[in-house]
Amino acid sequence: MASSSSITLSTNFYLNSFYRANTGAYKKAGRSELTKAELAYEDSRALRRAVKTLSSNDYSNDDSEKNIKNSITAFATTYNNALSSGEGSSELARYSKQLKKIIQDHKDELEDVGIKVSEDGSLSVSESLLTSASMDTLKSVFSSDSSDILSSTRRVSRNMFRQAYDSIYTQMTGNGGRINVIL
Fold first, then answer.
1. What is the dihedral of CA 86, 153, 46, 41, to 10 degrees?
2. Which residues contact 55 (CB under 8 A, 6 or more apart)?
3. N or C: which end of the chain has fewer CB within 10 A?
4. Which DSSP symbol is given to 138?
5. What is the pLDDT of residue 183?
């Protein structure tokens, strides 16, 4: 989602956009109502949207700098959500491990733009460091042309999405491929 240079869009705007099918899924209260498979489904779908947004940003347009930085902050939140929802299931845990490895492999690049990588693999954004990062540095880390972070995250989130979808479908249909409805 390319953003208009005349309007500053908040981090919450981007989170709502990433989670547009279920905006409650990124809020603490909404997350407590969903199963781990449902969270992984929503988080992995939102993470793919976040990657798409970051890769489509116009990093040469200084007017959109604040929007790009807000979308990066929303990406970090979405990534953290996907990481935590994947850890709740043995089927999904491998995707959390893969996400952690991607981030660990690019830890220095991320920290150069103000994104701290914690011991548990989660991301936290230093607003002051992110604000001081140049657009060229952001482009080198997050543009679709050069970002291994985004392409790898896209691949893992797509696989996580498929696994979560299969888990939900199996829960709904059971082993016979029919929906089990008990009244």
1. -30
2. 142, 143, 144, 147, 150
3. C
4. H
5. 52
Rounded to whole angstroms, how far apart are CA atoms 6 and 110?
28
Confidence of residue 11 (pLDDT cuts 50, 70, 90): very high
| Contact between 131 and 138 (Cβ < 8 Å) | no
Helix then strand then coil, % of the chain, to nearest 5: 70, 5, 25
CA distance 96 to 84: 8
pLDDT in tens, 102-156: 999 999 999 999 999 999 999 999 998 998 988 888 988 988 666 789 999 999 9
pTM of the model as a whole = 0.87
Rounded-to-integer distance, Cα 71 and Cα 68, Å: 5
Q: How many residues does the chain have?
A: 183
CB within 8 Å of 115: residues ≥ 6 apart? 72, 76, 123, 124, 125, 126, 130
